[in-house]
Amino acid sequence: MKKDQNLARLLVMLAVVFALMAALRPGQFVTMANFGSMMRQFPEYGIMAIGISLTMITGGIDLGVVGTANLSAILAAKLLIGAVPRGAPPEQALPFVALAALLALACGLACGAFAGLLISRFKIPAILATLGTQQLYTGIAIGITNGRPQSGLPLLYSNLGNTEFLGLFPLSFLIFLLAALAIGLMLSRARFGTCMYMLGTNPKAAQYAGLGNASILVRTYMLSGLLSSVAGLIMMARANSAKAEYGTPYTLQCVLIAVLGGIDPNGGFGKIAGVTLAVFILQFLSSGLNMFNSISNFYRDVIWGGVLILALVVNSLLARREARLAVRRGARATRA
Amino acid sequence: MKRTLVVMLSLILVLVVAVPFFGQTYDPMKFKSSKPQSAWKIALVPKDATNAWFVRMEQGVKRYAKDTGINVFQKGPPKTDAAMQAQVIEDMIAQGVDAICVVPVDPAALEPVLGQALSKGIVVIDHEGSSQQNCLYDIEAFSNQGLGAALMQVLAKSMGEKGTYTTMVGNVTNASHNEWADAAVAYQKAKYPSMTLLAAEPRVEIMDNLDTAYQRAKELFKKYPALKGVLGTSSLSTPGTARAIEELGLKGKAFVTSVGMPNENAPFIKRGTVDAVMLWDSAEAGYAMLAAAVAVLKGDKVANGIDLKAKGWNSMQFAPGSTKVLLGQSWINITKANVDSFGF
Q1: What's residue B79's pLDDT?
Q2: Given CB atoms, is A315 within the 8 Å cutoff of chain B?
Q3: What local confidence, expressed as pLDDT, does residue B5 receive?
Q4: pLDDT of residue B19
Q5: Which residues of A touch B86 (CB under 8 A)?
Q6: Is A238 within 8 Å of chain B by CB?
Q7: Across the interface, do A33 and B93 touch by the CB < 8 Å criterion?
Q8: What integer pLDDT is reported at residue B54 of this predicted model?
Q9: pLDDT band at B14 (very low <50, low <70, confident <90, very high)
Q10: How far is CA A232 from the centre of its chain?
């Protein structure tokens, strides 16, 4: 009940932002070109936001997503650049593209597993552990590339990555939808999803119930790492290169999306549907604001931050009101 | 199941072949706009919206809008980040702009999105991105040789065209700093025979740090009493070295110049310790980029000597062997006369 209300609130917000932009910039905002552009933009950070959301549901956080994404992409890029000669025909490049993608995904899993181990075995608070892994992964990425962009990927890779289905839906958008759907179903239907919520609600209780907290945590962070590496592969296709510092500001943005989407930073609550709506809201705002030439760039951050804080305050106020109502309902029930 | 997979894969392959290839060359003459000038819309995308350098650039953009009446504006990413810059350009393409002027954070990362812009007939002009493939022209404020020679002219004038000098770079790994310094030394050898490069330490590194510049300069002047001049490349060379000169009582006997910011150097210039530092103005660069975009939209031929109507950008020359990279002479000597007129 409570969570559905959250979704309804997000839908209203999405509609308000959409209506506002559509009313103020009708010829620009409600166009195929704009929607195509937005669909190409949000998957890379949207997928990382889903990853962070998962870790937040278990009461943790993963600040290492961008580092994981870049390190995975750099490994894949190194393999592709090394193995495929320049100008090689697509048939020759295809197996290496697949291999590079697998390598990136494996790297994502390993990065996540390491963070999960730090948190579950060494009991380091997630925020510190992943601050460390972010630094570490970015550091490794800088080290093996000397900080330079890895470019010269086979044409096939970026062509594949920028494929548009039916001339409209970019591959990255479909991957985002697939990831959101799969993770959403896992959380609501699978046993593992329930375990994550329980661990996030009360780790002690989960432990005494014999859920195996350590294993759940490691697997959660592995999932987050896996999603990050997918985001890394998408960024690599969009930039036609990989670099240790692409998308660094995304970390904070993803945390904000998760919170805006109704993921409880204290763990135990939140749905991927909410996160997906939050991603849309932020992309509408971002692309919409770029249409106002008169809004100085200085105010962009103000508007951005203002909307987020407003959403957080509204969420908190409504949650408090609901709690009060629940108490009153409880009192009435006892009287009766 | 297997069949769907095969169908899917072949579908992907067909689409792949249909996607236009990146890295093709475009003929700038084909980008002439058929729309009236009043309907043009040109976006300038800087590295970062709030960085002082690009805030200054926006003043050039506003001046261009006022001078020509063309709808030009500046929109940048909130942070200096290649991925976010690509997204802003993505938005500009979707808005249907006629030209995009860009100062790339990382040219390689923008190739796909700029390729997309070009394939849609949008004019793309780069600045400080000479390695960019997917642009019609890249305009640079100056050639490395030109700046090096200009720096040497300033130092030689201060030193009375004689005596020992050395060069000071931000980092020895910084390619452009080293090229400026090399060009300055070459210019000295050709033009000022009575000047000599300090053989023991011909290239001093200050790690792009003001305090290191000060310490190193102090050390150098003590160690080599014959040393009379420092030619710096990093903007921190002059304030650091000038402080050392003043503290050692060498004012009027030892000299320094480098690329530098007006406010940072104002006290030394006003006291006469430093004669001039050099700078190029981002507002002029912004103005020139827009002028280049408009030239292409008008269908004007871009050739050697083209005037981009901004100070120092009046006679652009193609870089040797290039038909894309255009070089200007856009540096300003910042002296006592104009040091307070910049506001930064």
Answers
A1: 81
A2: no
A3: 54
A4: 44
A5: 238-239
A6: yes
A7: yes
A8: 87
A9: very low
A10: 11
A164 and chain B: CB distance < 8 Å anywhere?
yes
Task: Decide the pairing of beta strands B123-127 and B137-140.
Answer: parallel
Residues of chain B in contact with residue A164, where contact means CB-CB under 8 angstroms, are 15, 19
Chain B residues touching residue A156 (CB < 8 angstroms): 16
Q: Which residue among B90, B96, B109 sits closest to A40, beta carbon to beta carbon?
A: B90
Q: Quick check: B136 and B115 in contact, CB under 8 A?
A: no
Number of Cβ within a 10 Å radius of residue B204:
22
Whether B92 and A290 lie within 8 Å, measured CB to CB? yes
Closest CA of chain B from A73, distance in Å = 13
Domain boundaries, chain B: 26-142+282-328, 144-279
Whether residue A246 and residue B109 make contact (CB cut-off 8 A), yes or no, is yes
Nearest to B296 by CA among B139, B107, B85, B133: B139
Top mean-pLDDT range of A41-50, A299-308, B30-39, B109-118: A41-50
pLDDT tens per residue, range B171-222? 877 778 888 999 999 999 999 999 999 999 999 999 888 999 999 999 999 9
A204 CB burial (10 A radius; 0-12, 13-18, 19+): exposed
Chain B residues within 8 A (CB-CB) of chain A?
Answer: 12-13, 15-16, 19, 21-23, 49-50, 71, 73-76, 78-79, 81-84, 86-88, 90-96, 106, 108-113
Q: Cβ distance A238 to A161 under 8 Å? A: yes
Could you identify the residue written with the tokens 């759907």?
Answer: A181
Cross-chain CB nearest to B16 (options A156, A239, A286): A156
CA distance B246 to A222: 60
Topology (CATH) of B144-279: Rossmann fold (3.40.50)
Question: To the nearest whole number, what is the mean pLDDT of chain B?
Answer: 89
Residue to test with chain B: of A40, A42, A65, A254, most B Cβ within 10 A? A40
Output the six-digit token pair for A96.
């290496």
Q: How far apart are CA B213 and CA B274, in angstroms?
A: 15
Does the pLDDT of residue A188 top 70, yes or no? yes
User: How far is A281 from B222, CA to CA, in rounded Å?
Assistant: 63
Kindly state the average pLDDT of the residues B280-300.
94
- Pairwise CA distance, residues B256 & B152, whole Å: 10
What is the band of B24 on the pLDDT scale with cuts at 50, 70, 90? Answer: low
Task: Tell me if domain B26-142+282-328 and domain B144-279 are identical in fold.
Answer: yes
pTM of the entire structure? Answer: 0.77
Q: State how far Cα B56 lies from the chain centre.
A: 14
How many residues can be counted in chain A?
Answer: 336
DSSP one-letter string for A4-28 = HHHHHHHHHHHHHHHHHHHHHSHHH
Closest residue of chain A to B50, computed from CA coordinates = A298
Q: Is A301 on the interface with B (CB under 8 A)?
A: yes
How wide is the angle at C-alpha A266 spanned by C-alphas A260 and A272, nearest 5°?
45
How far does B262 lie from chain A, in Å, by closest CA? 24
pLDDT band at B16 (very low <50, low <70, confident <90, very high): very low
**B160-177 average pLDDT score:** 88
Question: What span, in angstroms and rounded, lies between the C-alpha atoms of A3 and A277?
Answer: 13
Minimal-distance CA residue of chain B relative to A66: B83
φ/ψ region of B25 (left if φ > 0, alpha if ψ in -120 to 50, else beta) reads beta
Distance from CA of B304 to the nearest CA of A (A): 31
CATH code for the domain defined by B26-142+282-328 = 3.40.50.2300
CB contact under 8 A, B94 and A37: yes
* Long-range pairs for A122-128: beta carbons < 8 A, 24 or more residues apart: A126/A55, A126/A59, A126/A60, A126/A61, A126/A62, A127/A60, A127/A61, A127/A63
A 198-217 residues with CB < 8 A to B: none
The three-state secondary structure class of B61 is helix
Q: One-letter amino acid identity for A97?
A: V
